Amino acid sequence: QVQLVESGGGLVQAGGSLRLSCAASGRIFSINGVGWYRQAPGKQRELVAAIRSGGSTTYADYVKGRFTVSRDNAKNTVYLQMNSLKPEETAVYYCNVGGIRLRPEGVPEPFDYWGQGTQVTVSS
Question: What angle do CA 75, 59, 68 make, to 5 degrees?
Fold first, then answer.
């Protein structure tokens, strides 16, 4: 099994910063890509940023220059640094992790999991 634990959400004033973490644990052989998504009430879940195994990154246009996604491979943890936050970015933020895990008998198989989500509230 693979477990994901998200942390770092909270209440911040407009213009403030938060850093989210997504830590994966378990019988992980490798992590291929991690995406950060958010979902505001009444809206669809949308991609915010993503980072691939080689370190390349992708950002939604509306967060470019303000958000930074990074990873610590030794800790199987991905971070989302969010600066200059806006009230309209209030949402539940989720990480999605894809990779290869090892079954108990040692057979590798792909996995794709979502974190439990962490609330980010930006006050005006």
Answer: 45
Tallying the residues shown for the chain, one arrives at 124
Whole-angstrom distance, CA of residue 98 vs CA of residue 112: 4
Contacts of 38 (CB under 8 A, 6+ apart): 45, 46, 48, 89, 91, 92, 93, 94, 120
Mean pLDDT of the chain: 96
- Alpha carbons 120 and 76: distance in angstroms, whole number: 22
**Digit-coded pLDDT (tens) for 2-20:** 999 999 999 999 999 999 9
Q: Are 16 and 85 in contact (CB under 8 A)?
A: yes
Q: Residue 47 pLDDT more than 90?
A: yes
Residues whose CB falls within 8 Å of the CB of residue 88, separated by 6 or more in sequence, listed in order: 40, 122
60, 65, 61, 33: which is closest to 49 by C-alpha? 60
What tokens does 49 get? 């940023």
